[in-house]
Amino acid sequence: MTKKPVTKALFKWIDDRFQIQDLVEFLRHKQVPRHGKSLWYYFGGISLFFFLIQVVSGILLLLYYKPGEDSAYEAVQFITAEVEFGWLVRSVHTWAANLMILSAFIHMFSVLFTRAFVKPRELTWITGTLLLFVGLGFGFSGYLLPWNELAFFATKVGTDIVGAIPFIGDSALQLLRGGEDVTGATLSRFFAIHVAVMPAIFTLLLSVHLIMVQRQGMSEPENWKKLPEGDKRYMPFFPHFLLRDLLIWIVALNVLALLAILWPSELGLKADPFLPAPAGIMPEWYFIFMFQTLKLIPAHVLFMEGELLGIFGFGLGAIVWMLLPLWIGHKVRSSTVSLLGILVIIYIVGMTIWGFLV
Amino acid sequence: MRSRLKDTMDRMRTLTTAPLTVAISLVLICALTATAQSSSDQEQCYLCHLELVTDDSAPAAHFVEDIHFRKNLGCVACHGGDPESDDEETAMSEEAGFTGVPDRQDIPQVCGRCHSSLKYMRAFNPSMRTDQVDEYYTSIHGRKLLDGDASVATCADCHTVHKIRPVTEPMSSTYPTNVPRTCGRCHSDSNRMAPYGIPTDQYESYSSSVHGVALLEKHDLYAPTCNDCHGNHGASPPGIEMLANVCGMCHASESEIFQKGRKGESFQNLEYPGCIACHTHHDIRPPTEQMISFEAGGLCAKCHDADEIVPVQEGRQIRAMLDSLVIIRERGAERIEQAERLGMEVSEAHFLQRDVTQRLFDSRAHMHSFSAEALQPHADAGIAEANRVLEMGDKAIKAYKYRRSGFAVSTLLLTILAIALYLKIRSID
Q1: Percent of chain B with pLDDT over 70
Q2: B348: nearest CB among A81, A88, A243
Q3: Does B79 lie in the same domain as B107?
Q4: Chain A residues with CB-CB distance to B417 below 8 A
Q5: Residue at A288 is within a domain
Q6: Which conformational region is residue A115 in: left (phi greater than 0), alpha (psi within -120 to 50 degrees), or beta?
Q7: CATH of residue A151
Q8: ipTM over 0.85 threshold
Q9: What residues of chain A lie within 8 A of the CB of B393, using their CB?
């Protein structure tokens, strides 16, 4: 690749100071395995793409959004009705959040099924699961921000669950809500968490995650690894893989535009704490499997309260899931891992459908 | 008390042919004696009379529901006698102060013994008025009673005899939704009203009127019932001079504008009825713009000839302004509904539409000035806001179409880009 004199001079200027030649060499020689399961490699990139959209659309929304009991709903209404393309930005922000969670789930399960989480990628898996949890936190904190009826009562139910944690429940609830009930103070806290705390944590985790992925390269499926060296096919990361990534991002952008334009986000009625909760209060779809499980657990199970048991179960499940590479190594058979993944998917999908139907 | 009740119950069990009302009464007695502590003076009268219950009209049949029974005021409070004695002769003797059934002429005084005493009534309800009897004697009913006509309504005709409930209880004969029927019991009876020469179609007219529908069908307790216009204890037909004030109790703006307007004074001078001249009284229909017309269905021709140039022109101008406001408001409503169906955010337009509706009410109120000049600023303000709603609806629909076409263009561009990328990938692979 020949560089033009100006570009060459600029490159040299930067390289003299930051020694980027090594990085360029690394990218130039980086190879990505080519096989039947290559498609799954792209879901991490799709999640990243939706995150970037979230950042951009979130910043645009911030230009007009005003947190507060008396201003939040009105601000979102103003964004939707008055601001030029405000409806589109809000709709894109909502849909991209949902698509980001969906693609992150797909990415996580594809990593599980291809056994890409085992040594040496334990920490990549752990940071990935942490990213998903923070992503869910993004969804939960952002849901309240329009301060509409549905969001208000869903947040009330959601934070009530935190209050059920033994010993620290009350204090955690107070800390999260900024008082006894969901009020303007809760909205301010959720806003701060959504636009400052979580982006900081997410960016940090994401950086670590991406550095690890780049450092260790793409994982290779077990079957592919066993192939003779001559039969293994690769493609250069740059530009082949990156162009494919770009192509998929364009398709994802098209899907996002379709959803955002044909089904724009509704605003509903303004939250009124003095009104009874309306029928059909539901959290976002990615929390429904937990919500439905908690509904199904009896009020008391042996010596424990049912709700508490559910919270412990999910807490423990999340830790076990996050630390999966420590329990499941290379010695565990692929079919066992696949069975585990299938069971978890059946549980999540089944409970979600059940939750929507009842 | 319990043993007496048990005896009564045992005796009651022997009545094998007791009608259904007895069975219902028994249930009520058991329920109420279990919860309410009866005073001693209602015990014996009530228990003996209970055995005499054969139909709904028997005094003891419903007395358990009566507010007096519930407040531990027994039969003796109205009828005198000795409530302690179970001997009929002793209990209902003159010596014991038994007065029997009061004459209709005396009923207001019998009720007034307690109800006109502020000191006595304060023990039960400190906010209760005690001027009902005085007011009653100013009413057409009271005046006729004093003149010796015992067939007019007295306290018991409206409040019932032994089933008196507070006005706040929905089963009370004087609860707002029951008042038309209570009054109608006499006023719809053509035989009873024949000597007085007054019509008997008021209930029928009222129940299909805008007020009647609101009260009886929609259960809107703010809607006026008979006593809201005629008074209750002082019930009288409102005179011509009182009409605007009566209607104005609720329709304050219309009444004030009418009285200050060009027709208020002339109506008064000519002794024309105010509001009812156009709106009638019991049979009041929802007012419409069509009423302002010299054509068929209009009301102006009732007083004016179609060749009177000034009233006709004024009427047409008033009608045109109101019609314009109504039509643009309806168009706006349709437009924002259409935009909403397309998924557009039009809450601001909905909010403004409420203002337009308020402007329409305001304009309709100012129509009672019967002056196009006085109405114009109000109607113009409404029309301007209605036009804004229409514009907002149009803008939302236009924005929807723009989004669709914008999406089509962006999809096309992205698809071209995707194809170009795909071809590039193919070429370098």
Answers
A1: 88
A2: A81
A3: no
A4: 250
A5: no
A6: left
A7: 1.20.810.10
A8: no
A9: none
